[in-house]
């Protein structure tokens, strides 16, 4: 968490030098975070000019706050002091910035400085901007250095966003594309939200709301800086938008609450005798109140730290500011300067004014205010720009081409459409902006708002609903030229829902419904998938040109949208939903390259990811017939991509495909470094990659992994093979995968569904739709093990990501191990793993119902689910069969006494899938924190506590625990040393001695203290009465990692290794369920005739269908069940198949 580095300037004293205290000030802090004191030496000359000595290095993009104390008296410091600081990097003439300072109450002023690149920086007060020869400012200067920032922790550390050189898109200062993906909550900087605690208005704290939106893929927030007249706007006659009514702004729960949490308003109110145009109370736009803005500080800082960029609007157009005296009008310059001084240190798209309507024709007067401020600021800065160059815009009622861009183009770096029409008309406006004379990026700031009233142009098109209408605007706006990004808005735009009356008196969102409800409404999470679609590494969206009118046979007035590259080599498009029975046929595609083969891919707008593809050859005129949408489902919108055959992404790094003869010399242990040369790992030799039939190698050393895992082989053709000569017999084959591109250092954006492929051994499908990122994330090794019988002198390994197999992108393999029978993985008997020595507790958590968690260790240490936790409602799919989901509330499992016979040492292990790994202490399993032991997740790390009779307690958190992926955490204690393991790897060891202090109670999902409850999934908890070795822990991990929900040869059922071997030799072709996804009926094919037992269950383990049939291709019907993902299990003659099927 970045805090402001705070430098205090004190009045000079008659000494040649002295030590001045410099505080590191945080506007908020975690409970465990303490403010720290930094000392800097300040040198003073006899002329009273002060110079800051070089300090310890800061980081690029870290805010360095310099404090000044004026030595003169000012009647109105906000208006009277207009001091600017010049910041410059040594040896870099192009990095010079002019920054205004701001008044923060009393005689205190502050400047917020940011180093934009590593190096040494100096700053000085521009003395010509100082009035009254104020020695609090005159001659002040300083220096500091900046080091490279960690961009992996916060994308804002990439630098200030700016208009890209193509003038169509935005980018960070390091050149990384930035696609604004914003939510809208205009009042979010005010008391409508509690900062870290929920209130009755929004129902969720500001921090929790932003964190939730971040998880959904948002990276921005639309806000208005202040609402000066909110405390009296609801008085009769004050709200000019509602003449003659007592009505405030937006939802009634927010009236008078758009102020600071402590009650301060952004400006003071006028007193009697002052110039007043309307009546008291009335805002004094010349007297700002710093206390209001101090509460805004912590929210803006938090947004920046979460990687968010704001659309930061100064004020809403209903304010009477433009109709006050000329002196007050001119004060709009002071206000903008104040905002830039205080918050210009953050990434933002600045908006001069929230001009959302032409009501009362207020635009001409606001134009005068903006023009004056723009002119005055340009004189100070030396150009029409923000101090650090962030893009500027001004919300337009309709399109900026009709107002701001036409009248004051120097005030805009980005154009926009907003608020009017809210349908496909906005797409035509964005197209007009794209083809306008001045080339500037554009975006839609206020599109259709789902759940809002059917008024103000917010009506729904025929054949659509709120969700599909919003999605049409999302994709349609971007693909019509709005390449800078898109803003989501809905009925909760004020922090609580506004009145949402619909035709016929229907209301779908209750007035004043709290903002928390917006998180799961109208598929708003699909905005994250829009960003993924646009930024997908398989294309460069910056080359797109709006083409709905030239490349679609009938766009229906931009209802359907399309953008193409200038050379017609690729295109992105969107077909809008139409649920009517007589839905109009989709348009055909035209004017592509003639007689060329293109790959056509569908994108799932709601869930993200490429769902299917096919190759289409254009006609001699460049036309292609539009394929049917998946499942012929026109009730939802579908995005798509068209690329000339052969266009790829990863292979841009330059690789050479090579054919190499295989080596027929074999041993009982053959290890291959796929994509690399010979290497050694953990004492084992991995030979060079010479057994492949196809594919390309790629080296990714920047990911930090060691050989053989930092390299991989992939295939442009989406299929690749290994043919490895072996003696006939049984082998254990271990395949090692690591996602080193999507979500990895120097790669592309990560996410489930970015790479999906199948793996077959000897013609048998062993991995169906394997998604490495979804399993373990990026830069982490995923190992799968299989038993295979070779009977033809050659092991064949096939990889496929063909669309016909359900694949996405290129298949990968990092390393292969082929082991003789003496090195096989531990056998499985009677459906259970052979227990390692000392097993004294094993809770698989596989029950389908009830509240008892059975112990299969034989010691009958049954756990009891507490405080509402049940298998019936909290069952989820786990790493090994089923698992339990803990919501972070008070649900947990109570265990009997576990500490008996553990005094000399123990090991504890569990598979977990955290939902809030970055949170505080969350107990996973143990015997309380006041004695015995406990294993935690804490602030993204694995916590382990041991309490002994002799040495007291030791609690340390180490390693990296990730959100939303299954990982095995293990801890051991042998009486003299504690060890931490994640996914079988020893991440920390700590000397500690003594015998374990016995406790009579134990828990799963809770530490036994306060609110330290676990949030996420827990599976397969095991306890041992001895300290397992590193090899045993890794073996335990491999056994657990051997299982998978679908597509593996092993599952947590009554299938032994012998059965698996039989399966390998008996099955000659894989089985399928199709169509998949389905809208109801589906068929099972590929399984031989004979009686089959079929079970269909949901991911909670509830059985929906169970039947026996001898049909060769049985057909089942899910039309009566909700849209969701289901598991289909088929058994026949001791063999078992498992499939995932999606019902939409």
From TrEMBL:
For this protein, the record's InterPro entries field holds: Apiosidase-like_cat_dom, ConA-like_dom_sf, DUF5060, Galactose-bd-like_sf, Ig-like_fold, LamG-like, Malectin_dom, Secre_tail
Q: Which domain of life is it from?
A: Bacteria
Annotated GO biological process: carbohydrate metabolic process
Q: Which GO terms describe its molecular function?
A: hydrolase activity, hydrolyzing O-glycosyl compounds
Q: LamG-like jellyroll fold domain spans which residues? A: 904-1031
Ranges annotated as spanning the membrane: 33-53
| Alphabetical UniProt keywords | Disulfide bond, Membrane, Signal, Transmembrane, Transmembrane helix
Q: Which Pfam families does the protein's record reference?
A: Apiosidase (PF13204), DUF5060 (PF16586), Laminin_G_3 (PF13385), Malectin (PF11721), Por_Secre_tail (PF18962)
Identify this protein by name. DUF4038 domain-containing protein
User: Which lineage do the record's taxonomy fields give for this organism?
Assistant: Bacteria, Pseudomonadati, Bacteroidota, Flavobacteriia, Flavobacteriales
């Amino acid at each position: 968490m970045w805090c402001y580095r705070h430098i205090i300037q004190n009045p000079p004293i008659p000494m040649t030098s002295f030590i001045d205290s410099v505080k590191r000030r945080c506007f908020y802090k975690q409970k465990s975070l303490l403010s720290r004191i930094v000392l800097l030496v300040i040198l003073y000359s006899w002329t009273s000019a002060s110079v800051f000595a070089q300090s310890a290095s800061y980081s690029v993009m870290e805010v360095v706050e310099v404090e000044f104390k004026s030595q003169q008296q000012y009647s109105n410091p906000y208006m009277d002091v207009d001091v600017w600081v010049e910041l410059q990097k040594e040896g870099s003439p192009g990095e010079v910035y002019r920054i205004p300072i701001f008044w923060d109450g009393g005689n205190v002023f502050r400047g917020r400085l940011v180093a934009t690149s590593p190096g040494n920086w100096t700053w000085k007060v521009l003395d010509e901007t100082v009035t009254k020869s104020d020695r609090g400012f005159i001659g002040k200067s300083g220096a500091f250095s900046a080091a490279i920032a960690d961009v992996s922790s916060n994308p804002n550390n990439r630098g200030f966003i700016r208009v890209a050189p193509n003038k169509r898109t935005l980018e960070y200062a390091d050149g990384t594309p930035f696609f604004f993906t914003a939510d809208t909550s205009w009042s979010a900087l005010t008391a409508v939200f509690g900062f870290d605690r929920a209130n009755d208005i929004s129902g969720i704290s500001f921090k929790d709301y932003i964190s939730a939106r971040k998880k959904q893929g948002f990276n921005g927030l639309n806000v208005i800086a202040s609402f000066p007249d909110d405390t009296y706007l609801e008085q009769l006659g004050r709200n000019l938008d509602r003449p003659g009514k007592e009505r405030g702004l937006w939802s009634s729960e927010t009236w008078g609450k758009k102020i600071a949490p402590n009650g301060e308003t952004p400006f003071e109110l006028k007193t009697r005798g002052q110039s007043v145009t309307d009546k008291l109370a009335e805002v004094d736009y010349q007297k700002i109140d710093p206390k209001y803005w101090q509460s805004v500080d912590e929210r803006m800082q938090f947004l920046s730290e979460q990687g968010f960029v704001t659309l930061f609007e100064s004020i809403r157009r209903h304010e009477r500011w433009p109709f006050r005296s000329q002196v007050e009008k001119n004060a709009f310059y002071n206000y903008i300067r104040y905002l830039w001084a205080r918050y210009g240190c953050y990434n933002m798209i600045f908006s001069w004014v929230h001009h959302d309507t032409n009501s009362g024709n207020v635009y001409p007067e606001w134009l005068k205010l903006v023009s004056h401020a723009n002119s005055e600021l340009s004189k100070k800065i030396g150009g029409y720009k923000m101090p650090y160059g962030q893009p500027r815009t001004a919300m337009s009622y309709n399109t900026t081409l009709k107002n701001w861009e036409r009248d004051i183009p120097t005030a805009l770096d980005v154009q926009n459409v907003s608020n009017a029409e809210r349908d496909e008309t906005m797409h035509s406006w964005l197209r007009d902006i794209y083809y306008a004379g001045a080339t500037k990026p554009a975006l839609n700031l206020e599109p259709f708002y789902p759940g809002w009233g059917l008024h103000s142009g917010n009506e729904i098109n025929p054949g659509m609903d709120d969700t599909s209408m919003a999605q049409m605007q999302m994709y349609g706006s971007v693909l019509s030229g709005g390449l800078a990004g898109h803003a989501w808005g809905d009925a909760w735009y004020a922090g609580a829902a506004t009145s949402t009356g619909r035709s016929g008196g229907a209301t779908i969102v209750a007035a004043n419904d709290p903002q928390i409800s917006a998180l799961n409404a109208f598929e708003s999470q699909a905005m994250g998938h829009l960003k993924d679609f646009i930024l997908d590494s398989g294309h460069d969206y910056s080359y797109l040109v709006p083409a709905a009118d030239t490349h679609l046979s009938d766009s229906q007035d931009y209802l359907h949208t399309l953008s193409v590259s200038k050379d017609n080599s690729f295109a992105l498009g969107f077909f809008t939903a139409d649920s009517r029975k007589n839905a109009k046929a989709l348009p055909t595609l035209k004017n592509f390259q003639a007689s060329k083969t293109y790959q056509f891919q569908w994108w799932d707008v709601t869930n993200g990811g490429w769902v299917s593809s096919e190759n289409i050859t254009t006609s001699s005129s460049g036309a292609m017939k539009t394929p049917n949408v998946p499942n012929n489902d026109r009730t939802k919108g579908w995005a798509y991509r068209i690329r000339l055959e052969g266009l790829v992404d990863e292979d841009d790094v330059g690789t050479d495909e090579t054919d190499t003869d295989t080596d027929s010399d074999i041993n009982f242990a053959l290890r291959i470094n796929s994509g690399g040369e010979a290497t050694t790992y953990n004492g084992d030799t991995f030979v060079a990659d010479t057994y492949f039939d196809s594919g390309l190698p790629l080296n990714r050393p920047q990911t930090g992994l060691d050989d053989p895992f930092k390299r991989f082989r992939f295939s442009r053709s989406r299929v690749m093979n290994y043919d490895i000569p072996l003696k006939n017999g049984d082998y254990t084959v271990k395949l090692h995968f690591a996602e080193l591109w999507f979500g990895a250092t120097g790669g592309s954006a990560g996410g489930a569904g970015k790479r999906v492929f199948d793996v077959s051994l000897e013609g048998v499908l062993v991995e169906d739709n394997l998604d490495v990122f979804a399993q373990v994330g990026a830069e982490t090794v995923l190992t799968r093990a299989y038993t295979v019988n070779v009977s033809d002198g050659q092991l064949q390994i096939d990889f496929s990501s063909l669309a016909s197999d359900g694949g996405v992108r290129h298949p990968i393999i990092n390393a292969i191990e082929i082991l003789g029978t003496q090195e096989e993985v531990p056998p499985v008997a009677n459906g259970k793993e052979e227990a390692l020595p000392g097993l004294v507790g094993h809770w698989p958590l596989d029950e389908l119902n009830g509240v008892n968690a059975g112990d299969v260790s034989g010691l009958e240490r049954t756990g009891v689910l507490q405080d509402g936790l049940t298998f019936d409602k909290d069952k989820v799919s786990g790493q090994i069969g089923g698992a339990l989901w803990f919501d972070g509330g008070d649900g947990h499992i109570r265990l009997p006494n576990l500490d008996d016979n553990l005094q000399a040492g123990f090991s504890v292990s569990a598979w977990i899938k955290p939902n809030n790994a970055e949170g505080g202490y969350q107990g996973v399993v143990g015997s309380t924190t006041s004695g015995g032991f406990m294993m935690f997740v804490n602030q993204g790390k694995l916590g382990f506590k041991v309490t002994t009779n002799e040495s007291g307690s030791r609690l340390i958190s180490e390693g990296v625990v990730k959100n939303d992926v299954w990982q095995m955490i293990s801890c051991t204690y042998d009486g003299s040393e504690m060890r931490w393991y994640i996914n079988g790897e020893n991440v920390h060891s700590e000397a500690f001695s003594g015998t374990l202090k016995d406790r009579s109670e134990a828990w799963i999902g809770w530490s036994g203290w306060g609110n330290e409850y676990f949030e996420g999934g827990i599976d397969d908890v095991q306890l041992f009465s001895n300290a397992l070795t590193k090899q045993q822990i890794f073996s335990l991990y491999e056994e657990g990692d051997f299982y998978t929900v679908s597509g593996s040869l092993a599952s947590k059922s009554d299938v032994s290794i012998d059965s698996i071997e039989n399966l390998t030799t008996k099955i000659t072709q894989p089985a399928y369920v199709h169509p998949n996804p389905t809208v109801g009926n589906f068929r099972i094919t590929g399984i031989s005739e004979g009686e089959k037992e079929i079970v269909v269950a949901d991911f909670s383990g509830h059985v929906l269908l169970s039947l026996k049939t001898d049909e060769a291709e049985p057909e089942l019907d899910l039309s009566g069940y909700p849209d969701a993902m289901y598991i289909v299990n088929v058994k026949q003659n001791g063999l078992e198949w498992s499939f995932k099927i999606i019902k939409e």
